[in-house]
Amino acid sequence: MNHIKALGIKWIIVAIVSFSLFGIFQYVSLGQLLLMSVIITLTSYLLGDLLILPRIGNVFATLADFALLFVLFAVLGNGWMPTTFPIILASLAGAFFISLTEPLYHAYLIEHIFPRERTSFPLRQLQTEASEEMDPDLSSEDRIRDKENESSE
């Protein structure tokens, strides 16, 4: 059920951008725009969000999604648009606008779709160290003596 909800959110984002950019140009039917948005949604969800995101993290997954979205928009748009249409510019714009929403969408996926064990991002593995040493110039014998003096008082 969570994957269906995530696919729905992704489809809404892709459909809004597809309808906004490609819908304003002539000779593109509503059925073609719906099919284009479904194909792009499924492909980018399977490749970018389920395969790439858990392995390399949010930033690189967003960059990979940008490249994937650009290629998908270019290939699908080139097949359905007239040749006079500036498909490369529209593909770049579509990939850019969808990529703006990807970090927020990836944060949703990390919190609601992926279990905690599966999301092993490098930044989450970093840890800090804390110690009791306040004065690093003191020798260990001086610290032991100071602790004994504090406890006896």
Helix content: over 70%
State the separation between the terminal residues, measured CA to CA.
Answer: 64 Å
From the alpha-carbon coordinates, what is the Rg to the nearest angstrom? 26 Å
Oligomer: single chain
Overall number of strands: 0
Q: What is the helix/strand order?
A: HHHHH
Query: Could you say which structural class the secondary elements and strand pairing correspond to?
Result: mainly alpha
Q: What does the main sheet amount to?
A: none
Uncertain segments of ≥5 residues (pLDDT<50)? none
What sort of overall outline do the alpha carbons produce when their principal axes are compared? elongated
Structure report:
This protein has one domain (about 1-125). The protein has helices at about 1-20, 30-55, 60-80, 85-110, 140-150. It starts with a helix and ends with a helix. Helix 1 packs across helix 2 (about 30-55). It contains five helices and no strands. The model has no long low-confidence stretch (mean pLDDT about 80). With about 150 residues, it is mainly alpha-helical. Helices cover about 70% and strands about 0% of the residues.
